[in-house]
Amino acid sequence: MSLNNSSNVFLDSVPSNSNRFQVNVINESHESSAAVDNNADPPHYEETSFGDETQNRFRISFRPGNQECYDSFLQNGENAKTDASFHAYDSHTNTYYLQTFGHNTVDAVPKIEYYRNTGSISGPKVNRPSLLEIHEQLAKNVAVAPGLADRVANGDGMPEDEEAENKEGEDKAGAVKFGWVKGVLVRCMLNIWGVMLFIRLSWIVGEAGIGLGVLIILLSTMVTSITGLSTSAIATNGFVRGGGAYYLISRSLGPEFGGSIGLIFAFANAVAVAMYVVGFAETVVDLLKESNSMMVDPTNDIRIIGSITVVILLGISVAGMEWEAKAQVILLVILLIAIANFFIGTVIPSNNEKKSRGFFNYQASIFAENFGPSFTKGEGFFSVFAIFFPAATGILAGANISGDLEDPQDAIPRGTMLAIFITTVAYIGVAICVGACVVRDATGSMNDTIISGMNCNGSAACGLGYDFSRCRHEPCQYGLMNNFQVMSMVSGFGPLITAGIFSATLSSALASLVSAPKVFQALCKDNIYKALQFFAKGYGKNNEPLRGYFLTFLIAMAFILIAELNTIAPIISNFFLASYALINFSCFHASYAKSPGWRPAYGIYNMWVSLFGAILCCAVMFVINWWAAVITYVIEFFLYLYVTYKKPDVNWGSSTQALSYVSALDNALELTTVEDHVKNFRPQCIVLTGGPMIRPALLDITHAFTKNSGLCICCEVFVGPRKLCVKEMNSGMAKKQAWLIKNKIKAFYAAVAADCFRDGVRSLLQASGLGRMKPNTLVIGYKKSWRKAPLTEIENYVGIIHDAFDFEIGVVIVRISQGFDISQVLQVQDELEKLEQERLALEATIKDNECEEGSGGIRGFFKKASKLNITKPAPKKDSSMNTIQSMHVGEFNQKLVEASTQFKKKQGKGTIDVWWLFDDGGLTLLIPYILTLRKKWKDCKLRIYVGGKINRIEEEKIAMASLLSKFRIKFADIHIIGDINIKPNKESWKVFEEMIEPYRLHESCKDLTTAEKLKRETPWKITDAELEAVKEKSYRQVRLNELLQEHSRAANLIVLSLPVARKGSISDWLYMAWLEILTKNLPPVLLVRGNHKNVLTFYS
Hints:
Blueprint: E1 21-24, H1 30-34, E2 58-61, H2 67-71, H3 96-99, H4 131-135, H5 149-154, H6 160-171, H7 180-192, H8 195-199, H9 201-235, H10 244-253, H11 255-290, H12 298-318, H13 321-347, H14 352-356, H15 364-371, H16 381-388, H17 408-437, H18 460-463, H19 486-490, H20 494-525, H21 546-562, H22 565-593, H23 607-624, H24 626-646, H25 655-672, E3 685-687, H26 696-706, E4 712-719, H27 722-742, E5 748-754, H28 757-767, E6 777-781, H29 791-806, E7 810-815, H30 823-851, H31 857-868, H32 876-900, E8 910-915, H33 923-932, E9 940-947, H34 953-966, E10 973-977, H35 986-996, H36 1008-1017, H37 1024-1029, H38 1031-1047, E11 1053-1057, H39 1068-1079, E12 1085-1089
Parallel strand pairs: 1-2, 3-4, 3-6, 4-5, 6-7, 8-9, 8-11, 9-10, 11-12
Antiparallel strand pairs: 7-12
Helix pairs in contact: 7-13, 7-17, 7-20, 9-16, 9-17, 9-22, 9-23, 10-11, 10-20, 10-22, 11-12, 11-20, 11-21, 11-22, 11-24, 12-21, 13-17, 13-20, 15-17, 20-21, 22-23, 22-24, 22-25, 23-24, 28-29, 29-39, 35-39, 38-39
C-alpha cells in the first residue's frame, strides 16, 4: 500500500454501511504533528484500491493526532482504545511496522474471532480477508474512510449480521452461568447419592459381605469412571453447548446415533423424575403409617404426595436455574449432614435396644464374620450388583446442563471425576463401617442374651453376649439382611437419616427434571425430529425450555399416577447405560478414526479402555435385566433407522465421517497393490455433462450402467479468462455436487478451468480418478449443432475423441432426437420463479399498505400507487406478444423436458439392439448387458447384430451364439448382416453428399495454384482426394444407416460400434458427417468403442 502525502486530493467521509474494513493510520513523527494547527486542513492522500472485488469495502482516512493517541494502540492485534485520529506515517522511514505488526496490511494476524461459528454466543464470528483479497493485484482509486486500525488490517469488520450476533450476545450476557462446583460437582454428587445409600447399601453388605460388597462398588465405579474419562475427553475436544449426553454423542458419532440416544435419554430422565418422587412419597407414607395419619390408602397417598411434590419441583425449575441451583446446594448440605450423622453414630456407644437389633459399634469379630458373602436363596453376585449399580449412575447430571456452565470444558471433567471419587469413597466407607458394626441377623429382643453356662454358637453376636440363633429357623426383623433402616438405627439422630432420604430423592428428581428438558431442547433445536420442533423454543435470559419443562411434568405425572414403576425401572436404568455405552464408544471411535480434529485437552484417557467401557456397559445392561436390554436395543435401532432414513441436513464433522474417509483411503491404497483383472472390469466413466443439471439425460444413461458398479464423474470445463473461470468454478462446486446427492445420483462432480475446451478435457482424462479408480471410458453427447458450430468447436470435439484414444480410454457418444442441453428450460424456470417471488412480494406489500393507518383520500391513494409502481399500466400489445412467444417456448420446452427425462422412466418390453460390428475388447457388448440388469431396463431383450459373409450366415450365427454363451450373456436373437459392404441407394448417398457439400474444397475443379491457395486458407475442408480415399468407408456409414432403419427402428436403444477416424487421414467435418448419417432418424443411439483391451472373459 503506498500513501501519497500530497495535498491535491481529499477523501470525504462515507456512510458507515458502505465499508467493511476501516483503519486510522498513525504517524510516529510526534514533534511535527504537535505543531499542526487544529484549524488547518488535513493532509490529502491518493486513493488506493484493495482489489476489484473489494471496491467500496476498504476506506482509509488520515487525520491529525497526537502522542497520546498513538500510545493508546495495543500490539498483538488488539483494538485501538481511543476514538481519536492520527497522522499518516511514512512506511519507508519509521519503525511502525515493527510495533504494530498486523495493523498495516490487509493480511490478518491470528485471532480467535476467525474460528468461531456464526451462531457463537461467546463472541462475534469475524471473516478474515479471503485469499483472493490478499493475492490479487491491488487496484487503484478505492474510496477510503475513517475507522479502526485493526479492523482494516485484520479484515474483521462489523457487517450487519455480525452486529446482530453481538446484540444477541449482549442480550445473553445476563444469563446465569455456573462454575464447576455448583454446576457439576454438586449435581453429580446429589444424583449419585440416592436412597440406595440409606436403605439398600446395608442389605448389599449383608448379602455380599464386606469384600464382595466393596468389589461391587468398585466394579460399578469402574464403569462410571471410564465413562467419566470418555465424557471428559469429548467435552474438552472443542466448545460444548447445551444438550449434555446428546450433544456429546451426536457431535462425535453423528445425528443417527445422537438422535436415537438423545430421545430415549430425555425420556429416561423424565420417567426418572417419577421414580425419585415416588421414592420420596413412599418414605412419607411410611411416616404417616407410623403416626396413623393415612389420608386414603397407601397407593393413593403415594399418588397425592407425588403429584404435589412434582408441582413444587416444577415451580422451582420454572423459576430459573439460579433458584434450582440454590435448592440443590441446600439439599446437598442436608445430605452431607445425614452422612456425617451416620459416621458419628457408629462411635456412640450402643445401648441395649440397639444391641438387640444387631448394632455393637466397631467389633473385629463382626468385621471378620461379615467379610465373606452369605447369599440368601435366589440371590447371587450379579443379582446384588444389578440392584446396586443404579446407585452409581448420575454422572451426567452436570454435563446435561452444559449450556448453563461458565466453562464446560473445564467444569465437566473436574466436577464429574471428583464427584465419582467422593461418592465412591463415601459408599465404601459406609459399607465397611456398617459391616463392622452390625451383624447380619438380630431378633430385636433384649431378652435374647447369653446366660452364664449356655453354649455359644460361635457367632460374633454370641461372643458379644447375644443369642440370635433362632434367626436361622424363623425370619427376623433386624440385622443387615432384614432391616432396611439400619443406617437410621446406627446414626446419632435417626430423623436426620430420614431428612437425608428426602434430600437424596428430591435432589435427584430435581436434577432429572432439569436435565430432561435441556437435553430435549437441544435435540429439537437440531431439527432431527421435525415434529418436535415446537419444543426447541427457549424463554428468558437463560433460554429456559419452558415447553420442555411442562412436557417432562406431564410424563412424570402420568407415571406417578400409573404407579407401576417396578416394571419400568429396569428399562430406565438400561436407557442410561445405553447412553454411557455410546459415550465410551464415541471416545473410542473418535480416537480410532485418527482425525486431526480430535485433540482433547483432557489427556487422561485411552481408546481401548473406552472400548472396554462400552462393552462393559452393554454387559451390565444384560446383567441388570436381559429383556429390558433387548427392549432398549430394539428402540434405539428403530430410532437409528428412522433418523438414517430422514437424513437430517446437518454436518457436525463426526468421527463417523472421519472413519469413512480413513476406510476409503485405506481401501484405495490397498486396491493399488492389486493388478487389474478382466473379471473385475467395470465401466468407469468421465461424462462431459457440463453442469450435471444441464444435460440430465446424458447423465441418466451413463448412471444406468455405472450405478453401484463403477465410477461416474460429471465433468465441466470452464473456458475463458482464468480469473473469472476459477471464481465461477469454485462458487458452483458444492452446489452441483449437492444436486447429484439430492437427485440420488451416485456420481462425483469435477471441473477444470482451461484456455480451450480440448485442453480442459485432456486435463480431466489424465488427472481424474484415484489409484485404480481411474476413468476408462469417456461419455459425451452427440454435437447436434455441428453444421452451425464454429470451426474451433468442431476441432475441439473431434480432438477430444482422438485424445481419449491416445490415452487408451474408451469412448461412448450418445445421441437422442431432441438433444441433451436443457439450459434454456432451466433459465425459463428461474425467471418464472423470480416472477412468482416478485408477485408474492407485491401482494404482501399491497396487503400491508391496505392495513396501514395513514392519510386517506386521493393523496393516500396516489402515495400507495407511487410506492407500488402501478400508476402506469403496461401496453397490451407487448403482453400479447409475450404470451404468444411464451406459448411457442413452452411447446418447445415441453418436448425438450420430456426428452431429458426419457432415461428416468421404466423402459417397457422391447429390445436393445447391439450392432457389434468391430471387436473393441467387448465394451460394446458389456454396456448393454449391464443395462439389462437394471430395474428400468430389465424388460428389454438383447438382439445382437454382427457382420458376416452371405454364404456363411448360419455358421457365423452358431459361432457367435457359442461365444455369447461362454460369456454367459443372455440374448433374444442373433442376426448376421451379410450385405453391409454393398453400396447404399442413390437417395441415401445424395443426402450424404448434400450434407458434406458446404465443407468440400473441390480442388479438382480448379487450377493447381488456386487449389493450393484454398488448401492453405481452409485446411479443414474435405478434399476430393480424401473423399475418394475413404469412399468405401463413407458408403459403409450410409449403408449402415439404411440397415439400422430397416432392423432397429422400433428398438428402445441402439448400441453401435463407433467408427474410428485415423489421425491425419480423416478431416473433422467428414468424421462428423459420418456420425450424422450413421445415427440419423433413429431411436437413442450409443456409439461405443472400447480401448481394444479385453473387458470380457469366459475363464473362471
